[in-house]
Fold this sequence. Notes:
globular, 16-stranded antiparallel β-barrel, mainly beta, about 10% helix, single chain, Porin
Amino acid sequence: MKRLLALGILAALTATSTAAQSVQITGFGQMVAGTVTDGTTFPDLGYDSDWDFKDESLFALQVRGELNDQWSATAQMVARGRDDFEPEFAWAYVAWDGGNGWSAKFGRQRVPFFKYSDFLEVGYAYPWLRPSGAVYNATFSNFDGASASYAFRSGDWFNSIGLVGGSNEEGPPISQKVDTLVGIYVDSTYGDWLSLRASYLQADVTVDIDDLVPLLDALSNNGFANVAAAIDYNKDPAQFFGVAAEVNRGNWLIGGEFTRTTIDNSSYGDRNQYYLAAAYRINAFTPNVTWGRRDNKAKTRTVDLLPNVPPLAGLRAAVTGVVLLEDFDATYWSYGLRWDVASNIALKADYTQYTNKTPISADADSFAVGLTFTF
């Protein structure tokens, strides 16, 4: 039913236009097959020892219609394999172009966390099969609200400053709500070879995990409501900071990103995540390599709030397990190759080694190959 409704809305956007040339229909997608070559599962991916053809595969269709000289409407539907190709709106907004560098959007759009946020799922747009999982592991990517930006030139620099505000709500199995999301981002490009980016966002985060309810009740009933509050995300203030830089000199590219995420009033560890990537184009082939790190420190002092005595040993062990879910000391090495088969089609392969010194997840290696395209 959702699929029919989504396709019907897209058809209506196209059919109700009074001038065919005022509507642009574009799309992109990728078919990816992957497996774990060493280990059992790979973090943030749905791969195991069997070949999987759905987890990273997706198809998308975007319709943009001109309403008048200043206003337009855009809808982008994405059907992801990991969601059984059930389509959903990734974008659904009305845009205003005020001229002189001013613009605004109202509706569903991308959260400007990362350098590749706006085209994160357009696999054809970057050399590697996927941006490094060391950084690109956010639990949500869209928000409903408004954004405004101002673009201007200063000498050889072209700059864009943007403000965003809104909220996000994700449904089961884990319910997540992000309220009062506000942020700012700055993009700067020097000539045609250097690009810089910085972003800062903050919000109140609520996460409801059904499996955690018995532990929260047990803590509260035993007089440790403060510990329950520390491991329960309930309108906790969160902050995100990110910086990125990229040098692109035609045949070769070097870039990287650093992000830091914190959540106050919780056991959520401070997340420092970063990567460095390099690619070199040789005719139609682009070999690439990426190194990434996740350095997330769990707030183990939450566990110390519980006495280590026999009546509470079970609760202390359970709280320890929850707190250590935020502890990462992980390294990613990715080796990839892109082959531009045609002007809008690229075949990519990726081999990634993941090692983690903490017990949250076991070491694993993955291999994936995919065909990315635009139309």
